[in-house]
Outer dynein arm-docking complex subunit 4 (Denticeps clupeoides), 98 residues
Amino acid sequence: MTDAKSTFFSYVAEGDQFYQKGEFSRATESYSTALAQQPQEKNCLVARSRCYVKMGDSAKALQDAEASLQEDKTFFRVKRSIFLPSRTPSFTFSLCKS
């Protein structure tokens, strides 16, 4: 394994650990650093998207989810729903294996 690949996977693993601890902002930073090395890595985009969902940033979450589809439209399909539990609508989506 090359150093670049090793570093990429280290940042992804670090992001996964932060996500498990509920430290979504720190996880997002780790995933972003990994994506700076491999910008089209689908699984990392989806992982960062999940963080954005947890942080309430649906626009960035959707952007990453859709970016994960750029090269392979069958990787995941994005399903969006609008919930109106109060006066302010919130957007959620789920990533489903095709």
The chain has one domain: 3-71. Residues 3-71 form a domain with the Serine Threonine Protein Phosphatase 5, Tetratricopeptide repeat fold (CATH 1.25.40.10).
